Amino acid sequence: MTTMKICASRFVAGPFTLGRVLLRQICYGPLTRREEVVLAFVDSESELLGEHSARPLSLAVGQDQRTRHFSANHLRFLCHAVASIIEERAGLAALELQVCHLAHSDETDRELVDVLRARAAFRGVADPVTIDVSPDHDQGAPTTEPAALRRLLADATAKGFYSAAIAYGHELFSQWHMPASYDPGFHASTRGLARALTAVGRADDALIVHRRLLDHWNHPWVAATSYYAIAMLHARHLGGERRDVDKAVEALGQAFAATERLDDARQRSYYRAFLKNGMAFLEVRRGDINAAVQHMEGDLRALDEELADLSELQHRVVARNNRATLRLHLGQLDGALDDLDFVVSRDPYTAEYRMERALVLHQAGRVNDALADLDFAIDHCVTGPEAYHNRAIIRRELGLLDQSLDDLRFGQHLDPTDDEIGRDLRRALQGAGAHA
């Protein structure tokens, strides 16, 4: 039995105070690629990580180039990846984890504890977590220095730790008030807070943040970014009658106009191309796929002609992925695969891209290649139940019924609320019983 005593107070080391120490105690020697990916989120300062360690492109590009963000349920799936590493490195049945100050942890470590307990129940072993209610030390002091809070907010937003980001944002802006003149640091932190609010379903609060920015500063970069965000809020996130594509198109037009007022020619070219991607999305919402394709072609043409030397731009990958979706909708399998091959080559450790290519490969009849992509996503990336569900379908087609059933069981473990997996699992169990 391995016993570990670890403090979970966020005041000690921020998000994943518990998870970071836990992984440092069990991860040594050469890392697997999935371990590298997980450490890039949980312990990005780890000595075990190097310049060429595996990580999603979203963690490898700078904040100004990051155009793809993690979903709201990303944290849960990341914690499941941590749990899998613990299973492989230490074994849940052989682990006794004594955790103190869990009440002072943030969402990251609370989610990790919940996942570890759920994994133990799934495996049929004893709960490995004991809460120490009488710790021999205090919980530490909260971070109040604005520069540190800015770093914590930016890091938490980038890694998809959105509730933690919101907490840091509220603490930061309780003492750091909007300057009269444009401040790029304040602007970046405010955009990060708005992004986190949007991710957790607080679209109305995010809209308020962007309206305040527009009211306070007459600056083209503020207008370009906030009007784009407002367009996406109206198109995707606001509820009920407030979801309005026409209002989204109007806001995006204001973003285009503001972009033309940017002084920096390269920034102007980049953001103009970026906004074309947004317009393509709105055309899809209007039901005009051909118009969406035209905007995507314009986006990619601008990147090739005006920003060809910036090959590391994440937006180039995102745009090719979006064009693949449109091409698939139009029945252009070869074109979609060409785009997805590019996307996966540039961002091999983002599971969603692997899953999207697997779907197209499967549709093209390349079943073994599709299975290989799903295997890679599951073995090396942070992924949710969809990858297991899709692999279960292919394994069932190949006659691998036991393996298919295992995938469905684990997929449901990852997300017990996924009705589609639950339905397919019940059918598979009935079939297995009938066969037996």
TrEMBL record:
User: Does the record carry Repeat as a key word?
Assistant: yes
Asked if the Swiss-Prot or TrEMBL record annotates the protein with the keyword Repeat, the reply is: yes
What InterPro entries would the database entry show?
A: TPR-like_helical_dom_sf, TPR_rpt, Ycf3
Do you know which SMART domains this protein is assigned to?
TPR
Keywords from the named record = Repeat, TPR repeat
| Record's protein name | Uncharacterized protein
User: What is the originating organism of this protein?
Assistant: Nonomuraea turkmeniaca
